[in-house]
Design a protein that fits this description.
heterodimer; B: Rossmann fold; 6-stranded mixed beta sheet; 27% strand
Chain lengths: 379, 237
Amino acid sequence: MAMTAKRITQVTDSALAPLFKSLHSLRTMWQRAPKWARATGYLFVIVLAVLAPAQSIGNFMAPQSDWRTILFYPIGSYILLALGLNVVVGLAGMLDLGYVAFFAIGGYSMAVLGVNYHWSFWEILPVGIAAAALSGVLLGAPTLRLRGDYLAIVTLGFGEIIQRVANNLTITGGPTGISGIPHPPSVGTLSVLSYGVLDARPYYYLELAMIVLVIFFTTRLEKSRVGRGWVALREDEDAAELMGVPTFTFKIWAFAIGASVGGLSGVVYAAKVIAITPENYPLLLSVLILVCVVLGGSGNRIGVILGAFLVAWLPERFRGLANYRILIFGAILVAMMVFRPGGIIPAARRKAELLEGRGGGAHLGGEVDIEQPGSTPEV
Amino acid sequence: MLLEVKDLRVYYGKIEALRGISLQVDAGEIVCLIGANGAGKTTTLKTISGLRKVSHGSVTFKGGDITSMPGHQRVTLGLCQSPEGRGIFPGMTVMENLEMGAYSRKKKESEIIAADFERVFGLFPRLSERRKQVAGTMSGGEQQMIAIGRALMAAPDLLLLDEPSMGLAPKLVTQIFEIIREINSQGTTVLLVEQNATQALSVSNRAYVLETGEITRSAPASELLNDDFIRVAYLGE
């Protein structure tokens, strides 16, 4: 059985090899490209993103639904959430199964402060981010001493608890939630900056700006001392501590930063949809965002964005296939994990970690102690 | 005295892994801890470097009490451990691994750090040839060299080595012990944990014998090498 699986892997590997190889050479080309070429590349992507809501693109991308709405949620929101979760899972190597909690905290900050206290969007935004970050720290401080599976279970519980709490508190409106959430204030008379009910574009552009900011911020962070500490922490926590990485503090940092991106995305989401209920924050969303990260390539920002886009877009594009689309989607996910465990665009390091048999899988709760080659004498 | 451990007790749950261990290491020495599997050798090292919590007793380094200091701060005091087995960063290159060793050192030390790189490459020419290779793809012996080299990049006064010969071919084992002697002659004090008692004793000044969490013997290494009981129990003769 195992043998056949291996053979299938090899066969498919060789069939898909040219594709993956070209992906790989594309990456090396990109890394070696001069600064101006990369700047042009980034500019091109941003222009593409700005033009994305155009009707002609929408006709192809989402013939059965409103493309602009889909661009905001799920596509844009998933990308933002996946980028945040990538800090926790991809960079620091911790498994968080309750990430939706921070999305909810951001959302309820927007709803409660906006409806009950009449704060404006821009006043609530920093509060929502801070509330999510704070809850990340409060959750992290006692639990981040746990590893792998245990951390996963605790975060899973946290996600559930937040939803239950929202379901039972009066201030959150219980099961009926909160409605009448204010929109962000409009800027000037430009239609793309007038936040109303019908046009989803202004929200999409707001989200796009946030995505660009988060990418910029996390890229800087990854290249910093903290980022190097995260890599060490992910690959071998004990060794990292021995080398002087304050592992516990850095784990809290990763958790707080991931949480604040989740909160940010929650505030933006609630500001568009007018009404939120606890049902907007199911466990499934945590799982889907994790799928975005792992499918795209945990630790690789471009991969994660691509993964989030596919997870959000594919089910909408193939709406015509009705319920079969979820089945097909599931099959694709399973196939991906068999044939390309590092994700569509795996992070360069992750490959070596997976090869080693520990690092890559360890943070996902599966620390498998394979027979270590070092235990047999070698010359 | 560089390091002093007094009546150290460490628990894993309800199991007492260390039952009151006391030992000392003076500057300039090579001291080794020998003992069977599960005797508590690795636990002792991990406790000294701050990875395990102490329930009783104290650890003193350079005259200061570090019993409850977190591990990552102990590095800056000049205490660094090379972990057991494959305790390297598998996804990083050789160079990146070594750079992680200097993680806690200040940027203005960059000239001294550069000299330390040369020192490590002098000790391990093999690493110099493979600076850009990803560490996880290298052999057991090479990974051991990375682990030791990485610890040296922290410029420790006391180097803790956990089973440096584990899983290596006999020829490599001899080489690793020669390198340990060389590191010591360059001025680094070494505390060594080994199952390979013969080799460990022949490079060490002094040794402690550990049995089920307790120190049962403490003597100059040469004395233990010629001791009948030790020869039977640990040297396989």
